[in-house]
Each structure stands twice: as C-alpha cells, then as structure tokens.
Write the structure tokens for this entry.
Amino acid sequence: MQPQSSARPSPTSARPTRAQGALLFVQQYLRAPGQIGAVAPSSDGLCERMLETIDFAAARTLVEFGPGPGNVTRVIASRLQPTTRFFAIEANPAMAAVFHGRFPGLRLHEGSAANVCEFCVKEGLPPSNSVDAIISGLPWAAFADELQNSILEAAVRVLRPGGQMVTFAYHTGLLMPAGKRFARTLPRHFSKVEKSRPVWFNLPPAFVYRCTK
C-alpha cells in the first residue's frame, strides 16, 4: 500500500465512526446539495451492487470518485489485494477529513475528479490507459454539462481498454431533466452502458450504471 500522507491523523487520533460520517453527510448536503447530491450515504446493498462486477483479484489500479463518508470505500478496502494500487478523489474538504480519519492507510487526493489524469501522474501512473476500474459516488445529475463532460472525458482517458466505470443514479432522478440528460450523455463517452437491477432498500432507491471503455 502507498505511504501515508503527512496530512493524515496520527494513529492515536480518534477515528470518525460510520454514524458520524453519515451525520456529516447530511450536514454537508444541507449546506451544499449541488455538491453532495443525496440526503443519505449509500446503503450496504448499493455498495455491494456497485462492486459486484469489479475483478479485485486481477485489478492493478482502482480509483474512487467522491467517496464521501466512505461507505463504499470500506467495502473496497476489505477486498483490495496487496498488489492493487488504490486512491480516491474528494472535492469536499469536510468529507476528505472524515476519509483521512476513517482510512489512514489509503491515499486520497483533494480536488475535482476532472483532474484524475493529473492525480494518476502524482501516483506514478501514466495519465492514460492506466486504471482498471473507477468507482464513482459523484452526484452527476447535479453537475452542469461542462463539468459532467470534463469528468467523463478524463475518466475514459485514464481507463484501460475494456476498463469500466461504475456509478449509481436514483430512480426518481430518471423522471427529471438532469437525470435524463446524464443517461443520454453516458453512451457518448463509453462503448457500452448497462443498468443494474434496482436497489430498493436504498434512500432513495437506486441502480448502478456499468460503463465500459
């Protein structure tokens, strides 16, 4: 695993609990709903649905966009192989602080996922064709077209041929113009886009997009 950043808490620091992370998530949503995009973190069922097609045994590099309080990160960390490189990207400073507290052994870059190529270089990776899979918790429907496209273009660039990006959306969002727009945008960037079965016991009910380069 990569060396820890000096900005992370010391081993003796009290680490945030999952419940504390969830409370912060709600607080950050109330402050900046366009950046957080949901009223509650991903459920265990949604985390599992997002990761069910990731080949952790074969993956060399995995990246997480927008880990938030780390519900999906917790499952990723439990499945990472010693030879797999992993880093996350978080734009919200409060969420980044929680991530550092909960996962002091994992790498996190603070900034926009649109800069994933730059972060790959910082990790010693080529800026293109170097990532096996991206796991995204970003609130895509809350983003303007320009930001959506810049992140998706960067994601496609860093993915290896045949690599995939998995992300989720809410069923209620498909009824809204922003959700419909995002659904139309994905096939413009990826060769194949599939939708998973619904995860009804998520708040709100959600499904996963599996997008293959």
Notes: Residues 1-13, 19-30, 32-40 have pLDDT under 50 and may be disordered.
